[in-house]
C-alpha cells in the first residue's frame, strides 16, 4: 500500500508543542494517527499534486529542500495587499488534526491509567464522553482555523503554488463527523 511509504511530516514529539500528551502513547499508534491525518485531512486540502511535491521535497523531520515548501509547512510572514500577514503553516494544522484523531480513537487514553481529568498532581477521575467530544470538537475547530489561514496564504501566493487547486472556491463543503 503506497500510503505506508509516505514520509510523515510531523513526529509524535511535535504534538507536545501544541497539546499536552502523555509520554506513554505508543509510538507506532502515533505514527498511524499522523498518517491518517495526512491522508484524510491534508491530502484533500492540498490536492494530490501539491501533496506529492511536498512528499518528494521533504528530506528529514522539519527539513525541506525548497524554501516555498518550508514556508508553507512551518509558516512565514508575507506581504499581501500592502499588509504583512503571518501564516502559521501546515504543521499546527496537521498536528491538531492528528491530536483530534488520537482523542477520537483512544478516547483520551493519553495517561497510563486511561482517560482522566486531573484533580491534583496525584489523583484523577475518568473523563466523560461529553468531555471527550467537546475536546475533539474544539481541537478540530482550531485545526480548521489554521487550515483557513494556510488556504488564504495559498490564494494570496497562487503564482508560487500553481499546483494547489482552490477547491473551496469551486465547491464549499464541510465534512462533519458524528461522534458517539
Summarize it.
This protein is mainly α and 180 residues long. The protein has 7 helices and 6 strands; from the N terminus they run H-H-H-E-E-H-E-E-H-E-E-H-H. The longest helix is centred in the last third of the chain and has 28 residues.
Radius of gyration: 17 Å
In spatial order, strands of the major sheet run 1-2
Number of strands: 6
- Overall mean pLDDT score? 85
Taking the sheet with the most strands, its summary is: 2 strands, antiparallel
Span between termini? 30 Å
Describe the structure.
Helices cover 51% and strands 12% of the residues. The protein has 7 helices and 6 strands; from the N terminus they run H-H-H-E-E-H-E-E-H-E-E-H-H. The longest helix has 28 residues, at 129-156. It has one domain (2-164). The mean pLDDT is 85. It starts with 11 loop residues before the first helix and ends in a 10-residue tail after the last helix. The chain has 180 residues and is mainly alpha-helical. A hairpin with a 2-residue loop joins strand 3 and strand 4. The strands form 3 sheets. The protein has a two-stranded antiparallel sheet with strand order 1-2. A two-stranded antiparallel ribbon has the order 3-4. A two-stranded antiparallel sheet has the order 5-6.
Keywords for this structure?
two-stranded antiparallel sheet; mainly alpha; 180 residues; 7 helices
Amino acid at each position: 500500500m503506497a500510503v505506508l511509504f509516505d514520509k510523515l511530516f510531523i513526529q509524535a514529539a511535535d504534538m507536545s508543542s501544541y497539546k499536552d500528551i502523555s509520554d506513554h502513547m505508543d509510538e507506532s499508534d502515533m505514527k498511524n494517527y499522523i498518517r491518517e491525518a495526512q491522508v484524510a485531512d491534508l491530502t484533500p486540502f492540498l490536492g494530490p499534486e501539491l501533496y506529492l511535491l511536498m512528499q518528494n521535497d521533504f528530506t528529514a523531520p522539519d527539513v525541506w529542500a525548497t524554501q516555498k515548501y518550508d514556508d508553507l509547512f512551518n509558516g512565514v510572514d508575507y506581504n499581501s495587499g500592502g499588509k504583512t500577514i503571518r501564516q502559521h503553516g501546515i504543521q499546527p494544522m496537521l498536528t491538531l488534526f492528528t491530536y483530534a484523531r488520537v482523542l477520537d480513537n483512544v478516547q483520551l487514553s493519553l495517561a497510563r491509567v486511561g482517560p482522566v481529568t486531573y484533580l491534583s498532581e496525584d489523583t484523577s477521575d475518568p473523563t466523560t464522553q461529553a468531555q471527550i467530544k467537546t475536546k475533539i470538537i474544539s481541537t478540530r475547530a482550531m485545526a480548521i482555523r489554521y487550515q483557513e489561514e494556510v488556504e488564504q496564504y495559498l490564494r494570496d501566493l497562487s503564482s508560487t503554488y500553481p499546483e494547489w487547486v482552490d477547491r473551496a472556491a469551486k465547491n464549499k463543503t464541510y465534512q462533519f463527523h458524528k461522534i458517539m
